[in-house]
Task: structure prediction
Amino acid sequence: MTGLTSVGILGTGSQVPDNVVTNFDLEKRLDTSDEWIRSRTGIVARRIAADNEATSDLAIGAARAALDDANVSADEVDLLIVATCTPDRLMPATAVIVQAALGATKAAAFDLNAACSGFAYALDIATQALRGGAYRRALVIGAEVMSRTVNWNDRAVCVLFGDAAGAVVLGPVEKGGVLSSYLGADGAGANLLYIPAGGYREPNTPATLEANRNCMIMNGREVYRFAVQVMGEAVIKALSQCGLTPDNISLFVPHQANIRIIESAAKRLALPFDKVFINLDKYGNTSAASIPLALDEAVRAGRIHAGDIVVTVGFGAGLTWGANVIEWTAKGSSV
Ligand code: UT7
Result:
């Protein structure tokens, strides 16, 4: 990497809505059970945004916490990316709302939609942008209000998702940082997980709303099969790009969609489960927020230390996938 800057995570932050909805709460209004949800997914509860709370609100909270943690002020940020598939509005980008609220006046700001893989994508794009030296500090945020995308009568989908935001601040470091990323997409699977109406091909009308075409439709079994396969593959490819193997992993921070998917991936990578970070029991699947929220909680729980090799991997609608290999850098090691 001669001549190119190493780019590391200088700080992390997250924010979740206050409202906790447990499986037992869902049991009361849906033909489901805590036992089914827990045994099939590992999820016990999720956070649901208040009516007046949107993606940008959660993103702003997570971003402020990450800036604080990194000891970086908003006006030092050159690039701000919000990974989301639940933007406040179709236009303008949620990132500009966040930018204005933070006072990140120097930052270029845009949204990135790679669904649940959004954070993995955004981390790589921001790293590449900083590596060349054109930008010095980036805020990468994953934020979602997935609860607004689900049909609350569709038990096969609504029990899985929750709302949250997580953020990281990136900057140049002496060594280590984001070592490699591996991203992929296969649009042939676009109809396995999608929201039919509400874009400009099929704008919402009373008829689309009546038919719940504004809500997510998912082929759970196919997505499950895809996820199990792609997670292991993406991790191995990302690791091999920087000369590492699964044995080098200190902590695995996968997309928090389903405990069974994560167990399969860990098995495939021959990773002992004490090297896997799990918080999906508390939050369910928070799409692009899931990995940065998990990273932040792992840091706060003392599960990540300077020098650790932390590997993240996401998968989701698109189909898309992405893995990042990060050599964790010590606090205050930005150059
Ligand atoms: O970020 C990517 C997002 N997507 C995913 O990660 C989804 C990946 N897929 C999955 O996690 C799993 O496929 C699910 C958790 C969605 C479903 O688990 P499964 O073991 O594949 O269940 P299934 O879809 O095969 O359904 C089994 C049964 C069905 O009943 P019958 O047909 O066997 O009588 C469903 O109707 O479970 C029923 N079922 C439920 N029962 C109680 C589906 N949802 C529920 C529910 N409560 N919430």
Summary: The radius of gyration is 19 Å.
